[in-house]
Amino acid sequence: MIQMISSAAIRNIMQSHGISCRKSLGQNFLIDNNIIGKIIASGELTGSDLVVEIGPGLGALTTEIARQAGKVIAVEVDRGLMTVLSEVLTGQQNVELILGDALKIDFDRLAGESTAGEYGSTGKKYKLMANLPYYITTPVLMRLLLGRFNISIIVIMIQVEVAERLAAAPGSKTYGALSLAVQYFAKPEILFRVPRTVFYPKPGVDSAVVRLAVRPAPAVVVRDENMLFNIIRAAFGKRRKTLLNSLTGSALGLDRETCLRGLEIAGIDPGRRAETLSLAEFASLTDSIIEVSS
Question: How far apart are CA 75 and CA 126, in angstroms?
C-alpha cells in the first residue's frame, strides 16, 4: 500500500503513470491527515459497516475507511485513476473498485451484488462517503436522495456555499429550493470547514464536510411529492416576488384565483415570499392547491 498524503507523493505517482489532474472532472486531492481523520470520525464507522465511496481519487480517504469499516465499494468515474488506485490500495482486501458514473449507478443493486444480498434494497442499510466535485454536487446529491437508496447516512465534502444552502433555515439568504429538497429527505448538519490549502491542486474556494442523516420517511406528508417540488421551484424561481405572483406567473399553469384560494386554505398570506415558508407550509400549500384544482 502506498501512502498518498502529500502533494509531492501525488505528483510522483501521477507522473509515473502518465496522468494529470483533470479539471473537467473537478479533481482536487486531499493531502491533510487531520482532515481525513475528522471525516472518518464523522461516519461513525464500525467493523460491520458497508461504505460506498464516490470519487476515491487517489485513495487517501479510501485507505482509512477500509481500516475501520467491514467493506468499501469505491466508485470512480475516471478510468485513468483505476490503475493508480489498484496500486495504492494493494493489501486492502476489503476494498472493491468499481469504474462507474455516480449519476447512473444503482447503488442498492451494487451493494446487494457485492455482499450477496446482505446490504441493499432488501438488506441492511449502508453508509456513503464522498468528496464531490463542485460542478456535480447537486445532481449527485439529489440522485442519492430521490433514488431512495437504502443508505443510513451520507458524509460528503462539498463547496462551503453549497453546504450552507443544504442546512439553511427559513428566512436566511441561503435558504432555497435545494434546502427544502434535501431537508425533505434528510437531516443535514455542517460538521466543519475545510480550507482550500489542504488540497492538491488548490481549488478556488473552501469546502465543508456535511453529514446527512437520511430520514426513514419524508419530513412531511403531502398528497403529491412531485407537485410539492414543482411548487417549491416555482416559488423560488422569482424569489423577489410575492408567492402569489411567483406561482401565478410560473410554468405550473395555475391561474390567479386558484393560487389565491390555495393560499387562503393553507392560511398563508399571499404577500409573503418563498424564503419565509417552512417545508410544512409548502406541503400544506401543495395539498390546498391540489384540493382547489380537483
Answer: 15
The CA-CA-CA angle for residues 126, 280, 160, to 5°, reads 55
CB 163 within 8 A of CB 141: no
* Cα 101 to Cα 176: distance, rounded to the nearest angstrom: 27
Write out the three cell numbers for 69: 469499516
Q: What residue ranges define each of the domains in the chain, with the CATH number in brackets?
A: 7-214 (3.40.50.150), 225-293 (1.10.8.100)
What would the grid cell of residue 96 be?
A: 472493491
- Separation between Cα atoms, residue 251 and residue 183, nearest integer Å: 24
pLDDT at 249: 80
pLDDT confidence of residue 200: 80
| pLDDT for res 22 | 65
Residues of the chain with pLDDT under 70: 1-6, 17, 19-26
What's the CA gap between 54 and 22, in Å, rounded?
16
The pLDDT assigned to 1 comes to 42
Q: Output the furthest CA–CA distance in the chain (Å, rounded).
A: 68
Write the Ramachandran bin of 111: left for phi over 0, alpha for psi from -120 to 50, otherwise beta.
Answer: alpha
Q: Kindly list the distances between the CA atom of residue 293 and the CA atoms of 254, 256, 259, 265, in Å, as whole numbers in the listed order.
A: 9, 12, 9, 12
Report the helix count and the strand count for the chain, using DSSP H and E: 12, 9
Mean pLDDT of the chain: 92
β pairing state of 95-99 and 126-131:
unpaired
Beta bridge mates, 158? 208
Which pairing describes strands 186-194 and 207-214: parallel, antiparallel, or unpaired? antiparallel
Q: State residue 24's pLDDT score.
A: 57
CB 274 within 8 A of CB 236: yes
The pTM assigned to this predicted structure is: 0.91
Check if the beta carbon of residue 176 is closer than 8 Å to that of residue 239. Answer: yes
Q: Residue 2 has what pLDDT?
A: 43
